[in-house]
Amino acid sequence: MKKAFPSPFTFLKLTLIGIAAGVILIIPLKILYILTGNTAYLLLFNFDYVPVLNQLTPVWLFGYIFHFSTCICSFIGLYYILKYLNKQLSLFYYIAVYTVGGGALFFLTCVSVKPLAENKFTAWLYWTFAHGIFGFAVGLSEEVYKSNIIRKFGLVIHFENRK
Q1: What pTM was computed for the model?
Q2: Pick from 10, 53, 66, 160: most CB atoms within 10 A?
């Protein structure tokens, strides 16, 4: 019989992947923000459109908590949906879902109190591309973890036989 909940080890692994991919999502948008001034980066930490949460202070701290919580929860949720469909090792689905989903979520800026970038189309392109990178990061991390690539190159201890 299948367990209803993941093992603590699996949950920790998925959480760490979500955090690492959340950092990877920040990097290209931060670089583009520094180079171009495009404020799509700031949306990662914006929660002013969420009732109750928008009252939390300090805003910078809860912005980071909001960002990483979203990264972790969305990855764990998608992982188990894909696992149910037996597609959790397919890089394509992670990239597709996060690229399309991220592109769609960009339009939450319409209900945001803070004004966004002057060039919304460019900001949307940056945002969507960065979410594709996020999908690549979570998909690749899971694919590499489950594959024999790690074992072949002896990069880390393989935890395949853990219970």
Answers
A1: 0.83
A2: 66
